[in-house]
Amino acid sequence: MELSPEDSLRLNVLLANRVDAVRIDESRMTVYALTSRGEARVQLNPTCRDDRYLRHVRELLSGHVLGSPGGYPVFLRRWTRTGQARDQSLEKLLMLGEPEAVVAVVHATGLTDELARKAWWALPSADNARRMLERECVVTGEMGRVLAEYLVEYLPFETEPAAMIASVRLVLRPGLVSAETRRRLWERAQQKTAYLVGFLMAEPKGLPDPVPQRADYARHAQRLGALADRGNPYASLLLRVLSSAGQTYLEVVERVLAKPANQDVVNAVLDTVAGHFRPAHPGLGNDAPIERLVEDAAQLCERNCVPGMGRPAGLSEALAALPALQAELRATLVLARLGYPVVRPIFSQSTAIGALMRRKLQPVLAPIFQQLQALRHPASEQAVAPRS
């Protein structure tokens, strides 16, 4: 069974003109085409079951675009979602009327702002919007604001925290949303810890509602600044951490860890904290439980080394110049090595979420909160510092 003569004629006439993209509405049995003159439409008249008829339609499209009605599935399986589709093939993929072909374009390294416009017309979805906003050419192009606006409007309907985190992180890239929209997202984040993680990733140095700098910031700033000017990474990091922006970052991290929604949120916040403190990474492996991270940090600060390794460059200098900040330096060493390994003993044995997950995580989270408190409060205040 082939296409009806009427459909065959109309589709061939459509394809004889310049077509930028094709979309098929299977529920309405309608083929839409994006052209330089706007949107064209062909209402199909099936002569057999809808699914079989649509296969014939796609074979006609594939034959016209790729030169072979049977070549498309093999081509698709090889390139879709790998990001390896050849740049010269991308425009053709958008003319096949296949959602997976659009996904191939969205993931391709050769994606441009113009291709993003066509792909968005062909298959608007939150996943595609997020993927395209990972590309600088799209963020700075005409489609950046369009995709960001869609993700902001779609956020209330997201159900997965990982998707919420990614959407907030991406729409907060410079120039995509207004100050009013940013503020609205921040207000929503007070009830959605996943949103807070997105803010931590996107704006670690400029979070809204900043808290004051640490009480002893002025006392240490001059010496920290002098060391930082000489290229000491630990001094540079502590100078930032003790500032208003740094204290705000830590306060938000504590709020997230106090009430994470699920394992995705925990993993994401641990990774972003580790990235934030990366300048303090001692060069040791990260595949260790939290107790080992704390022990290693203590040995580095108090006993000069850990087995098989001396002190990292700059740590000895920072400890000698800033003996009053040894606890803070120790905390940065711990936080720089956070990641999935510290929660693996729990997450590998449990799929719990919410309050039950948080109870199971207490043996891991308690030492992390101790490091955060060491950075938020001078040693003289530790005894009266509020618990998270």
Q: Can you describe what's shown?
A:
The structure is a single chain. The protein has 388 residues and is mainly alpha-helical. It has three domains: 1-123, no CATH class; 124-203, no CATH class; 217-384, no CATH class. 59% of the residues lie in helices and 5% in strands. It has helices at residues 5-16, 50-66, 71-79, 90-93, 99-107, 113-122, 126-132, 136-139, 143-154, 161-171, 179-189, 193-202, 217-229, 233-242, 244-258, 263-276, 290-302, 315-321, 326-335, 340-347, 354-376, and strands at 19-25, 30-35, 38-43. It has a three-stranded antiparallel beta sheet with strand order 1-2-3, sandwiched between helices. The radius of gyration is 27 Å and the shape is elongated. The relative contact order is 0.06. Mean pLDDT is 91; it is low at 80-85 and 383-388.
